[in-house]
Write a structure and sequence with these properties.
The chain is mainly beta and 199 residues long. It is built from 1 helix and 16 strands. Strands 1-3-2-15-11-16 form a 6-stranded antiparallel beta barrel.
Length: 199
């Protein structure tokens, strides 16, 4: 009988976290959380130089602000591309009105978030073959979580605000031995705080 794979620890949140990161002018990470200590919710964190649409370098559109603040302080701020990004310290939280996903993760996929006069659309295209892996705590962004996930790499990802494309592009990246880019879909993502002393 095959041995069951177990992740000792506490499940802190589970959901989706597609994004575009790396050393770019514009960074974005989107969360669709189905389970957490703060309940369900969505959060889009967008960091870029001030523009005609975004008067602040960093904004978070969310329908659950306590959840969004927790995700930013405990996770986003530790993601490689967001580490030490000054804009996160002055992040403006704004209530979102609607969130809609569209497309097919086999070829092109989008998330559209609306908040008042802002419409932000994230689109991933040139999608690759899905693959599953589980980062041990030492290799996770936080250093203390197991992170089993389903990833889909892509060739390009765009960020549109009110129809205008923001600057930025992807670069090559390796994840779990797969050559993808710095933009990807992360589905079925679960962050499990490891028990002390566990590998």
């Amino acid at each position: 009988m095959d041995e069951v794979i177990r992740f000792p620890g506490t499940v802190e949140w589970s959901g989706e976290n597609p994004g575009r990161d790396g050393p770019f002018t514009t960074l974005a990470t989107f969360f669709r959380v189905v389970l957490s200590p703060h309940g369900r919710g969505h959060a889009l964190v967008l960091v870029q130089p001030p523009s005609e649409f975004l008067r602040t370098p960093a904004i978070c559109l969310t329908d659950n602000e306590p959840l969004a603040r927790w995700l930013v302080s405990e996770f986003v701020s530790k993601f490689g591309a967001f580490k030490d990004v000054a804009g996160l310290r002055s992040l403006l939280y704004r209530k979102l009105d609607t969130v809609e996903s569209s497309g097919d993760p086999r070829n092109i996929y989008s998330e559209t978030v609306k908040a008042g006069d802002l419409t932000v659309t994230l689109t991933w295209s040139g999608l690759g073959v899905p693959f599953c892996f589980a980062n041990p705590p030492a290799l996770s962004a936080t250093g203390v979580h197991h992170m089993p996930s389903l990833f889909i790499g892509c060739l390009d990802a765009s960020i549109l605000v009110n129809g205008k494309r923001l600057p930025g592009s992807t670069i090559p990246r390796e994840v779990a031995g797969r050559k993808i880019t710095s933009a990807m879909l992360a589905f079925s993502e679960t962050w499990i705080r490891a028990e002390p002393g566990s590998p």
